[in-house]
Amino acid sequence: MSSFADALRRPHQKRLYRRIMSGPLLLTRPSDATRAHASGVNPDRVLLFGNGVANGWGARTQTQALPGELAQALTERTGRGTDVDVVAGVDWTIENAAEVIAGRDLTGYDAIILLIGVSDAFQLLPEQRWTAGLVQVLSELLKRTSPSTGITVMGIQPISTIGVFDTEPGGLADRWAERLNQVSWQVCEGRARVHYVDPPAANLIREPVSQAGAEATSLDHFHSWAFVQAAHLAPYLDAQSGVEHPARVSRNTSQSRQRRLDALWKTHLLEGPPEPRFDAIVRRAQQVFGADGAAFTVIDANRQFNKAVAGFDITEVPLERSFCKTTITTSQPFVVGDAETDTRLIEHETGELGARFYAGYPVEAPDGTRIGALCVFGGQPRDPDSVDIVALRDFALAIQDELALTVAGRTHEESRDPSIPFAEGRPASPRSSVSV
């Protein structure tokens, strides 16, 4: 600690923090899919990990919160699509974050942004413990990511900018956040692929106090965070946008059959009748592409099951006649201009639908497993270059968002419980002092 007086204040800060967080916190936080997207081809994939602003306090959807703002800001700078996932927990600290990361497959991300430390700074965590925790987190991230993945450590914002804490600007908590940021910069310096970035200026990130407060309608602080992050990340992502870079190679590698079946089982898509929400998306895709047919398909153990269809009424296709089984082997679109001449399909039958033209985009379960595809097709050949890949991806993402809402609905109580931040089979973080 910086002084004996500060050491005496630390127990008081911890008690105050627990009292604040155990009281009626009136802010909302996103309850939809833990991801956001921006339209475009060759999408970059970014993970936001941590707490504080990553939790999206005050926003109802991830599109309104930091993931949505960051996705749009990056796409505006790169001209490519962007997928931003968020993994955040209100009870995470620098000392338990490494345990949350352990066991997760992070190899497919082009960049990871670490946002953590608000509660640590407010509770005046000693810098030796902060250093040890940060070193452990970075070691885990470096171990679990691809050699091309950039890791950004965002500085802790001034605690006085977070309305719920009601602290004085420049007070003890603000000074301690600044001190931990200095330590973070020193830890990041010299580590390959790791960069420290200061938070936005304090006057740009004042967060709402409560839903009833005057500031509750303003979500501008998410835009400010996204602007700083995008300015830092965009040049790095541009340099890593080639298909040969390890992160992209990783996410374009075939996933195991068992992983797909496990993820598919959790979605419950093989149960029940057709669902209007999927039917509407598929019908719209058929109309936009002027296709003979369109479908949302999932690949089971030995068949292609058409969960939603437009233009035909076949619900199952044997795998040997499935274009979609090829689509799910990578995270990229699969377009066949003419099935009769495409050399990739020498042994492929055109199937019961007699399709010669096909365009499909993989659909992922909430955990990132490719379980099926959104596809359009027709009996006449088409020029593959005429296919609007951006629109095709947007329809696939619309399906993914609906799937995420399904899983979130089934785990409603868990997702509302801060001690269980992951849905369906994901490990909760260890309990400790609560964070925001």
From TrEMBL:
Looking at the record, which segments are called Disordered? 409-436
From which residue to which does the signal peptide run? Answer: none
Looking up InterPro entries in the UniProt record yields: GAF, GAF-like_dom_sf, SGNH_hydro, SGNH_hydro_sf
- In what residue span(s) does the GAF domain sit? 273-413
Question: Origin, by domain of life?
Answer: Bacteria
Q: Which Pfam families match?
A: GAF (PF01590), Lipase_GDSL_2 (PF13472)
UniProt-listed Gene3D superfamilies: 3.30.450.40, SGNH hydrolase
Entry's SMART domains?
GAF (SM00065)
The name on file for this protein is GAF domain-containing protein
The organism is: Frondihabitans cladoniiphilus
